[in-house]
Amino acid sequence: MSEVLQEIQKKLVFPIDFASQRRLDRSVYLCLMIGTVVSCFIGLFTQSLFNLVVSFGLTFCVCLALGLPSYPAYNKQRLEWVKPKISH
Amino acid sequence: MFSLSQRFQQTSNQALSFAIFAAAFVVATFCAQLYQDNVFGLSSSIGNIQPQINVRTSRFYGSVNGRPKENLKISFDLESDLTPLFNWNTKQIFVYLTAEYNGLKKPSVKSEVTLWDSIITDKEGAVISLNNAKSKYSVWDIEEKLSDRNLTFKLHWNIQPWIGPLVYGETNGESPVTLPQTKPKSQSARTSKRSEAV
């Protein structure tokens, strides 16, 4: 059973390259920060905590949609592994 | 950020950190709005207080070993506008009318009892206008007698917010009342018999 789970886990990795990781980290942080500030002001000006929670939830969903899938654009700079030299 | 699960974890953790910031922002603006609306200077008018003292011998009314215990009930008028207590973080308000008095045996000890309370859940219900309302609770003191004491009635409020700590306060407008002296039962019975005879 655990072997089956390990196989599934291996298939669910969806890796992205190093440059995209760095870029994504910054953009998700920025998106969340701006989204939080905007949500706070939306809530304050409409005097509604519900609006704050909804806009913050939307921000979180946008960040997940931005970061979770392994888009082809995130895998353009894949590392080229050094090929082993076989000497006879 | 390499795998799907790592990206999900990192995004969730960052979102949680920002959610804490948002909660702090809500609490700060909530408190600022309360001060701006001057909620700690709200006024109330408590009038037409009619105290009624009953002597009870039930243990459910504070009596110990069948010894009579004086219980107080009142009727009162109350006017107050508590709408400034409602802003975007207010869930509900708990309003309660209390009476404060000094002890007879220990005059330095102050006691406070709640006679009436109410929960207000929306801004429309925050304008209180009660006429000849009855107290909800029958109250008694730890000492036997409650009569002949000076009571100060005050209206307190307590905001229960969605996020953040409870906020307590009281309105301006105290009403002092002196409770009447109760006559012993035998004496009042005798006087009524005498009046019947006459």
Automatic annotation (TrEMBL), chain A:
The chain crosses the membrane at residues 28-46, 52-74. The keyword NAD does not apply. InterPro entries: Spc1/SPCS1. Keywords: Endoplasmic reticulum, Membrane, Transmembrane, Transmembrane helix. This is KLTH0B01848p. GO terms for biological process: signal peptide processing. GO terms for cellular component: signal peptidase complex. Belongs to the SPCS1 family. It is found in: Endoplasmic reticulum membrane. It holds the Pfam family SPC12. It is a multi-pass membrane protein.
TrEMBL record, chain B:
InterPro entries: SPC3. Residues 173-190 have a biased composition (Polar residues). It is a single-pass type II membrane protein. Residues 173-198 are annotated as: Disordered. It is found in: Endoplasmic reticulum membrane. It holds the Pfam family SPC22. GO terms for cellular component: signal peptidase complex. Belongs to the SPCS3 family. This is Signal peptidase subunit 3. The lineage of its organism: Eukaryota, Fungi, Dikarya, Ascomycota, Saccharomycotina.
